[in-house]
């Protein structure tokens, strides 16, 4: 292709400058801390607790976002109803909304004096200042990723394969399991990985609803900020940031590998 070499060179240059160079600098800086610095930072119970909270809440939120996002994408593509275009536009709202605004809004709604919180308070259900609030915030910002990755696949899939399966006597459940899900599985895994990665790095919308209690609701990105503001806490912040980076990268590689494996198996079966 004409211009392929130039385009590839420019693309790799920008990728290296914008993405790879900062990540490499972080890893090199953390590698220079020595074994003692790593052991002190990794052995901190507060660091371990923050990583557990971040990964657990991001995983739960990604699963919920995936299920709800797939359902919303199905409704938007398979049905025509009044207000469909408005609903389709509202899906992208978390993309454009500043995370701080999202956090304040969610806290105001689910707080004990909020619209939803005051109805749940007599039942003993509290959604703010706990991990449930973190999951709610992460679902809010992760849902659009799941919808927008599944929706184009449903649009390309069309109804022909479903109608062909029905004409051959397949039930709706069999059609869903044998025809639709194999085609959607790579997109579902991609949507999950995007929502999961977004949840791991989310900061603004979480701090307003989580309560930020050390060892309980403190997420890793917040602890990194706290460590940077402390005197002599740069080392711990660098180690924690590197740990979060490596663990996130490992999870995303595993999810993408599984997506590629399922996509290859689907093409082979086809």
TrEMBL record:
Source gene? cysT
* Role summary: Part of the ABC transporter complex CysAWTP (TC 3.A.1.6.1) involved in sulfate/thiosulfate import. Probably responsible for the translocation of the substrate across the membrane. Part of the ABC transporter complex (TC 3.A.1.6.1) involved in sulfate/thiosulfate import.
**Where found?**
Cell membrane
Residue stretches making up the ABC transmembrane type-1 domain = 51-255
What's its membrane topology?
Answer: Multi-pass membrane protein
* GO molecular function term, any single one: ABC-type sulfate transporter activity
* Transmembrane region(s): 53-77, 89-110, 130-150, 187-213, 233-263
Q: Does the keyword Membrane apply?
A: yes
Family indicated by similarity: Belongs to the binding-protein-dependent transport system permease family. CysTW subfamily.
A Pfam family assignment: BPD_transp_1
UniProt cross-references to InterPro entries, sorted A to Z: CysT_permease (IPR011865), MetI-like (IPR000515), MetI-like_sf (IPR035906), Sulph_transpt2 (IPR005667)
How is this protein organized at the quaternary level? The complex is composed of two ATP-binding proteins (CysA), two transmembrane proteins (CysT and CysW) and a solute-binding protein (CysP).
Highest taxon of the lineage: Bacteria
PROSITE patterns per UniProt: ABC_TM1
The protein's name:
Sulfate transport system permease protein CysT
Query: Which UniProt key words apply to this protein?
Result: Membrane, Sulfate transport, Transmembrane, Transmembrane helix, Transport
Q: Which GO terms describe its cellular component?
A: plasma membrane
Q: Is Transport tagged as a keyword? A: yes
């Amino acid at each position: 292709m004409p211009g392929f070499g130039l385009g590839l060179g420019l693309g790799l240059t920008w990728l290296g400058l914008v993405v790879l160079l900062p990540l490499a600098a972080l890893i090199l800086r953390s590698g220079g801390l020595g074994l003692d610095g790593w052991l002190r930072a990794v052995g901190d119970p507060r660091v371990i607790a923050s990583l557990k909270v971040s990964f657990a809440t991001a995983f739960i939120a990604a699963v919920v976002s995936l299920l709800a996002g797939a359902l919303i994408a199905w409704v938007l593509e398979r049905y025509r109803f009044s207000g469909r275009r408005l609903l389709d536009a509202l899906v992208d709202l978390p993309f454009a909304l500043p995370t701080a605004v999202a956090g304040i809004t969610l806290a105001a709604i689910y707080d004990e004096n909020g619209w939803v919180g005051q109805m749940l308070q007599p039942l003993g259900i509290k959604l703010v200042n706990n991990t449930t609030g973190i999951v709610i915030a992460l679902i809010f910002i992760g849902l659009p990723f799941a919808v927008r990755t599944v929706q184009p696949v449903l649009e390309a899939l069309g109804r022909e394969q479903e109608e062909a399966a029905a004409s051959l006597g397949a039930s709706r459940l069999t059609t869903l399991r044998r025809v639709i899900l194999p085609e959607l599985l790579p997109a579902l895994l991609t949507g999950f990985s995007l929502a999961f990665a977004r949840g791991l790095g989310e900061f603004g919308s979480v701090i307003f609803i989580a309560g930020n209690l050390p060892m309980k609701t403190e997420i890793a990105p917040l602890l990194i900020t706290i460590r940077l503001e402390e005197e002599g806490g740069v080392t711990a912040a660098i180690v924690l940031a590197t740990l979060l980076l490596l663990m996130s990268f490992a999870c995303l590689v595993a999810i993408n590998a599984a997506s590629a494996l399922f996509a290859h198996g689907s093409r082979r079966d086809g």
